């Protein structure tokens, strides 16, 4: 396994600066996920680590060596792309071993590596088949196997599951996590799917506009988002945001007020009085008969093991995750409570966490 260190990385494409002064340290054996919306620069960043995109400025170290100008073949990386990119006329075994054969590796070594990767990815019975005889999930396993046989110090994954259906994505997501545990290799994974990021990552890097917005464990990024963008990007449904005023003094608990929606915040809240944005996740809004807040139901989305209930509280639209299976009617009056220990406050101007 190898570490990856990016220093002051800048990448310009078509006259536009895609990555700006980016610093990132990836620890050996880490499963780091680059997460963000389309166009945020995450794939460009991954491709620069692989050596497929030239840098405008900055440096890339892999395993303690400066690889900023090295060819992709010299970087000690294995890469899995979004498309399978398999040779249609070659068998699974030939596809997996292609790079090693081109490099002139001994036949016995090639056979050992292919067999090891095939066992890990449950491909032993498919080695003599061609890509046309495989399902989408099997083809992606072959693409992953082709990277694994390199026995690289770092593995790069560029949205490898995006072409698969939901069931296959969930299966391969689990297999990738088990594979990382078995190999202990350094893995850098690009996705816009927050479920993949939350389940796979040891740390998540949330990106927007070519910049890192937050780095942390999945629980850190989810529970304490650094700014409003991160808060709104993670979670389904998204976090609820309410613009209002923070009232109170140093001696009295602060109270958030936004018309019909008003709550007393925990005693450890030290944010300054004035305009703030209160954010609360849907799972922290609880429908209960004796709740202090009133609302009417505007929409109910059945999700199997829970319901997403949309509420109107004095003009504020809120989503709540409800595990009670009892049906709710459109327009029904309900009462609810907010778990104030789990709310976040953001500066309405800068979006930063208070």
Automatic annotation (TrEMBL):
Pfam families: ABC_tran (PF00005), TOBE_2 (PF08402). Gene3D superfamilies: 2.40.50.100, Nucleic acid-binding proteins (2.40.50.140), P-loop containing nucleotide triphosphate hydrolases (3.40.50.300). InterPro entries: AAA+_ATPase, ABC_transporter-like_ATP-bd, ABC_transporter-like_CS, ABC_transpr_MalK-like, ABC_transpr_MalK/UgpC-like, Mo/tungstate-bd_C_term_dom, NA-bd_OB-fold, P-loop_NTPase. Keywords: ATP-binding, Cell membrane, Membrane, Nucleotide-binding, Transport. Residues 4-234 form the ABC transporter domain. GO terms for molecular function: ATP binding. PANTHER family: MALTODEXTRIN IMPORT ATP-BINDING PROTEIN MSMX, OSMOPROTECTIVE COMPOUNDS UPTAKE ATP-BINDING PROTEIN GGTA. This is ABC transporter ATP-binding protein.
């Amino acid at each position: 396994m190898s570490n990856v260190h990016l220093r002051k990385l800048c990448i310009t494409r078509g006259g536009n600066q895609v990555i700006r002064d980016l610093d990132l340290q990836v620890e050996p054996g880490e499963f780091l996920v680059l997460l963000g919306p389309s166009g945020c620069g995450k794939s460009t960043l991954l491709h620069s680590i692989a050596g497929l995109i030239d840098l405008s400025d900055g440096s890339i170290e892999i395993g303690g060596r400066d690889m900023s100008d090295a060819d992709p073949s010299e970087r000690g990386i294995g890469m899995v792309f979004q498309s399978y990119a398999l040779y249609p006329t070659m068998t699974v075994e030939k596809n997996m071993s292609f790079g090693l054969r081109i490099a002139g590796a001994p036949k016995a070594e090639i056979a050992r590596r292919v067999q090891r990767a095939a066992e890990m990815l449950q491909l032993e019975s498919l080695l003599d088949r061609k890509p046309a005889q495989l399902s989408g999930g099997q083809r992606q396993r072959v693409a992953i196997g082709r990277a694994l046989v390199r026995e690289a110090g770092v593995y790069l994954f560029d949205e490898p599951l995006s072409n698969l259906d939901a069931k296959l994505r969930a299966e391969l997501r689990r297999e990738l996590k088990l594979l990382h545990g078995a190999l202990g290799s350094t893995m850098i994974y690009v996705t816009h799917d927050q479920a993949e990021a939350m389940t796979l990552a040891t740390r998540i890097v949330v990106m927007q506009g070519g910049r890192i917005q937050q780095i942390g464990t999945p629980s850190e990024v989810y529970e304490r988002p650094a700014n409003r963008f991160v808060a709104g990007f993670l979670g389904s449904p998204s976090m609820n945001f309410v613009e209002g005023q923070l009232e109170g003094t140093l001696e009295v608990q602060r109270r958030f007020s936004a018309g019909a929606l008003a709550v007393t915040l925990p005693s450890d809240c030290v944010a300054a009085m004035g305009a703030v944005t209160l954010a609360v996740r849907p799972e922290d809004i609880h429908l209960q008969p004796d709740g202090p807040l009133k609302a009417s139901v505007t929409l109910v989305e059945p999700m199997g093991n829970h319901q997403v209930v949309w509420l109107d509280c004095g003009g504020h639209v809120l989503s709540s995750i409800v595990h009670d299976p009892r049906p709710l009617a459109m327009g029904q009056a309900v009462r609810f409570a907010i778990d104030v220990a789990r709310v976040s406050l953001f500066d309405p101007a800068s979006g930063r966490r208070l």
